[in-house]
Automatic annotation (TrEMBL):
CDD domains assigned: RT_nLTR_like
Cited InterPro entries: DNA/RNA_pol_sf (IPR043502), RT_dom (IPR000477)
SUPFAM superfamilies: DNA/RNA polymerases
Residue ranges annotated for the Reverse transcriptase domain, each copy included: 169-278
PANTHER family on file: ENDO_EXONUCLEASE_PHOSPHATASE DOMAIN-CONTAINING PROTEIN, REVERSE TRANSCRIPTASE DOMAIN-CONTAINING PROTEIN
Recorded superkingdom: Eukaryota
Record Pfam families: RVT_1
GO-annotated biological processes: DNA biosynthetic process
Identification of the protein by name: Reverse transcriptase domain-containing protein
Length: 291
């Protein structure tokens, strides 16, 4: 019996390795997840510090992480200019159809963890045809009134070690886990806005865009260099890395720029509501922080 169990275990593991290997062209994430699982996981530090403050129990560690991550965001009061890009098209609302909601639900990654609402994406995905009707009825008046529900603004934050000292809170970066319903709602709105603004986005931008990535950026850069070499031209390159750039975006400035691109009315109020009064709960070492 023990031998049969061992043989079956080996066979199942070999089958799993084969699936991971064969799936590399279409699912590289699973491959790297497997590679990561082979590495020995370091122990969680017993003592963690943020400046001169120290934490030893899980809850205190989470509170220190929460304090640090929230301090990174800087909503500095600056004069907000009025942007006018000469954009004649305007958008004050979005069409939310049952079909849109169903397709968005079905596109959820069932492997992802549940957010603060404790609703697993797998449940929403499998029940998409039924839930789509009710969620459409819920989303439409929320958008019309320019309100993003406060209970969907809460997110889990998982600290991930970058490099340096594992006991130093500052050497971690946050991974945000939102509620699946929040992702569905924002994805529907994003698709509508993207179709309105995609023609205004420069070809040189590769981040945060569908079909663009670091790969497309490097391919374009390589083509530029090869063309320059063929013409015996000089190429100078400057790399910049803005510290915590994504976390420090001024929301008032962002809303003003969207208004300059023709976003107004309930849709602009919805986006402003989406950005305001968000809360986070840090989960680490079996503990959680206060919101």
């Amino acid at each position: 019996t023990r031998r049969e169990c061992r043989d079956l275990t080996h066979a199942c593991y070999s089958e799993y390795i084969g699936k991971v290997e064969n799936g590399i062209p279409r699912d590289i994430k699973s491959f790297w997840s497997h590679v990561g699982s082979l590495k020995s996981s370091p122990n969680v530090p017993t003592h963690m510090t943020l400046d001169k403050k120290e934490a030893t129990d899980p809850t205190s560690k989470c509170d220190l992480f929460a304090r640090y991550f929230s301090s990174v965001f800087s909503d500095t009061t600056v004069p907000i200019p009025r942007f006018d890009y000469g954009w004649n098209q305007t958008l004050s609302s979005c069409s939310i159809t049952t079909l849109d909601v169903q397709r968005t639900l079905e596109s959820l990654d069932a492997r992802k963890s549940a957010g603060p609402d404790d609703i697993p994406p797998r449940v929403l995905k499998q029940c998409a045809p039924i839930l789509a009707v009710h969620l459409t009825i819920l989303f439409r008046p929320l958008l019309a009134s320019g309100v993003f529900p406060s209970n969907l603004k809460q997110s889990y934050v998982i600290p991930i070690f970058k490099s340096g000292d594992r006991g130093n809170i500052r050497d971690y970066r946050p991974i945000v886990i939102q509620s699946a319903l929040a992702k569905v709602f924002e994805s529907i709105i994003l698709n509508n806005i993207y179709s309105q603004l995609k023609s205004r986005i420069c070809l040189e931008q590769h981040g945060f865009l569908k079909g663009r990535s670091t790969t497309t950026n490097l391919l374009m850069f390589q083509e530029y260099i090869m063309s320059a070499f063929a013409n015996s031209s000089q190429v100078d390159c400057i790399y910049l890395d803005f510290s915590k750039a994504f976390d420090k975006i001024n929301h008032s400035l962002l809303i003003s720029k969207l208004e300059g691109y023709g976003i107004w009315g309930p849709l602009l109020r919805w986006m402003s509501s989406y950005l305001r009064e968000r809360t986070l709960i840090v989960k680490y070492d079996g503990g959680t922080s206060l919101p």
